[in-house]
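Following up on my earlier thread - several people asked me to post the actual chain instead of describing it. Fair enough. Here it is, all 345 residues.
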Amino acid sequence: MKRRILELDGLRAIAALAVFLIHSGGFGLRAFGETGNAFVDHGKYGVTLFFVVSAFCLCLSLPQAFEGTPVDWRAFFIRRYFRIMPLFYAVCAVTAVIKMHGGMPAQHIAEVLVREVTLISIFDPTTRNALIGVEWSIFVEFLFYFMFPFVLAWLITAPWSMVAVTAILMWPPVCEAITTFLGIQQPNFTIFWHFHSFLTGMLVYRLLITDEKQRPTIGSALFLVAIGLSIAAVSKHENGFSVSAVSLAAACTIAAAHYGSPLVIWLRWKPLTLAGQISFSIYLLHPLVMGAVGEFGFLTPIQAAIALGLTLAAAYCSYRLVEMPAQNFAKRLISRWPERPVIVD
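Reply from S.P.:
Thanks for posting it. Predicted structure:
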């Protein structure tokens, strides 16, 4: 399989912009009534799209694992840590200073920072989003990184029947019933609720690695299915169907790109792929920018447009000044020791 699929950057951009849409207030789309509200509200499923693409890309970065070759998991975790945490820590620090000047008690900020920096909030959904406002997904993503080696080993060796049963058990409505029974608070902020999306990304990779042929007709059909699922999700408004529909739509779109469908070429549009490359910065920085421009979640269309422009500019700078240097540092760090691959059985 190709190590670089440009359409994935396009999907990341859509995910980031979808989250921006709902947090901005909708760019005036809520004025179109029930349909407009449903469209804007589904912006929160941009995070679901992020998770599917993330899991697929993790598999894409470790093709040797599917070939039976040992994997250096130490290098994997270092790369993931420096991909996520440096920018997260930087945004936490800036946000803490702003909130302290805004009157939030210093002791409370210190307590929140300790939970955020040490990732303790991973284990307590009720304390998430206490600082930046979107960090719950960072904790879910990072927890999945710890699970990934074991899930990958299982996915490679497990029969399809067992994979199918697991996928059903991890279907969000089923997860909701399980978490309610267990008394887990705010399950939609936990790995239980979103594991289905990660598993979908991994499953589509396992399916596609066995078929390297270009099949544009099949790819186009899959993309049309993705469009249909997306429309169905919005038309049904808010229910448990939406998160599953978005996950499957993302999987179908990734498969369409793999098969060379001409219908997904637009995802390679340069401005879109550039936004995809800086999508993590967009995601973490947009609450700060929105707070500076207006009231988070209630921006006017003009304020939202200004916030979008400023967010893109700030995200590009943070990508160049924080994300890229951190990733380069991780590469240099890994190169200093001989590989010691370890297989997780």
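The chain has a mean pLDDT of 89. That should answer part of your original question.
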